[in-house]
# Entry
Amino acid sequence: MSGLSNSIPDEICEEILERLPVKSLVRFKATCKPWKSLISDPSFVDHHLNRSAARCRKLAIFFEDIGKTENSSNSRSVVHLLDLGYPAKEAKWRRSLNSVVNFFGQNFVVYDICKMVNTVWTRINRIANSEKPTVMEFPSSVPSCIFFRCCTFRGLMMVGSDSADTEFSLCNPSTRQSWNIPNPPNCKFLDAAALGYDFIVKTHKVVIIRQIYFAHSQYEIAVYNVKTSSWTTFTVDIKDDDPTLDFWTYSLTLANGAPHWMTNSISPRIYQIACFDFTENELIRFPIPDTNNDYETYDPHLFEMEERLCIAFFRFCVPFFPFFPYHKVEIWVMMEHGVGESWTRLALSRDQIPAGFDFHRPISFAKDGMVSLVREADSIAIYIGNKKRIEIKSRIHYCLFRMLASPYVESLVSI
# Structure
């Protein structure tokens, strides 16, 4: 680092660079050889990633863009990166019907996103964010069909589909790099797949889980190590009296680097959470909170809050006239990971969210009062607690299939 500056110590220069966005750092790599060497150093990449994770304010939105592109008349799989730290210039509404939620001692309001989006359709089309969203097309190996196997963690994003002939891809939207992952041996069908992180060996990993159909009581698990570019395959036994791995829902979230899925049996309808621990190569299962079967309209939804696993239960309720329909919601936090007795219900001063014909759900929560909400299937909004206002950040056009969204941390991570 010597020679970078005659007046600023090298340690201060490094401290400043760690706070800059990836877009600036990519440009600075061309400034001089010492800066290129520093910014490419794995230690610097880790420090920058940790800072980015601490102030994460971005959402990755996966969707299908139906219509002609520059090179093709077919649809394409793309991702929008929205920076929630930059307020939109328009679309600020005062609260009307709302639900006041106390989250770790701080009150915030959940808005009727559906009603606002439907009411201000034309105005939303003119919204211009102060920072233009990043749009990235996925590699050509990802088919232009609905894709469910999407997740992000520590700067990397994994995308794929349910097609057995399709390779999964890893990409870094911040640097616009992408890599294909070879399929594991004998993988024709899969029940679940996810990206995660092994904090012991400090590398991203991918897990693919499939049931062995001629042996109903076994699952085959394949783990891909990004650092060594190799697969490890093994089988796990399922207890005969545990039917909850019969059906894997698409409610996927990552907490502490481990992917979590909501699983359930078809009949009787019993839910469990399945978690894969990359450090031990172990499939772990634990129960969901006991809600006395009061929430049966929708499947429970998983998300994470500052590395803690959360679960949301919903039920659509239609009261007698003249009252409006509403969603009854209940949110729980697992205070100690893997311990069913540690589920803690958030204190709700009013547990009804006004509902339109569409359904909206939370993506993530933060203790500073910023809440990310997604309306299925075409709008993203946030509630800023300290300013007590809602901002509709994006509307996705021509999205005929389900839209997926998750928090995203930008990074310099490469493979």
The domain at 53-408 is CATH 2.120.10 (Neuraminidase). The chain has a mean pLDDT of 67. The CA atoms of residues 57 and 84 lie 5 Å apart. DSSP finds six helices and 28 strands in the chain.
